[in-house]
Amino acid sequence: MTRKLIAGNWKMNGSLDTNATLVGEMLAGVGTPACDVALCVPAPYLAQVQGLLAGSSAIELGAQDVSQHENGAFTGDVSATMLRDFGVRYVIVGHSERRQHQAENDVHVAIKVKRALAAGITPIVCVGETLREHEEGMTEFIVKRQLSAVIHLNGHCISEVVVAYEPVWAIGTGKTATPEQAQAVHAVLRAQIKAATDNADRVRILYGGSMNAANAASLLAQPDIDGGLIGGASLKAPDFLKIVAAAD
Ligand code: PGA
Description:
Layout lengths: L4 E5 L6 H15 L5 E5 L5 H8 L5 E5 L16 H6 L4 E4 L2 H6 L4 H13 L3 E6 L3 H5 L3 H16 L7 E4 L13 H16 L10 E4 L7 H5 L6 E4 L6 H10 L2
Helix pairs in contact: 1-2, 1-10, 5-7, 7-8
The structure holds 2-phosphoglycolic acid (PGA).
């Protein structure tokens, strides 16, 4: 069985001061975790957090987005090789907030995955249905469509990615999918990955959406839930560390 992964997604939060305190608290409490742990921080803070994490093998560095372009006239974009320069190990790709606010579509997401893989960075590919899609019973259709674009472009390299199932209606809302609901979707995704690679069992499928210290253990106990992508609770060291401790 692969090690679980608990990845924090700070989103657009933090400052030089608060980052130093938060990472310091996390390093002081993390010990030798039984799972992999990463912090996906805003791009301007990559250098700072890389420095704070230097010397620790318990927590790895992640970014929240990567350009679909290699380099050139793309003002404001950050390339995969730039991320690699700062020791970035993981990058979130296709988060629903970017799909919604930055008009990212399945094709953009698939290309970003390719760029990250080419730079040796593990993409955390987010899929998930909106509340309306959920209510209309379209969950399976939506997540399969989102993942199939990534598989189509990246082929058997899909075994190198991390997938995160994040129902949009559960993100930052305090509403969580039940462990059974999440497991059912994870099983669908696992079957889809199995059809594309012989190594589907080593692909980690994370759950994200209001995962917290209280509900983490029951979600992480499901057979196809291999970790979590944690937003709000990753901004409080004690909460995040409780989730890390629940992932063994
Ligand atoms: P949340 O966010 O844990 O605050 O719901 C998760 C995410 O958006 O990755």
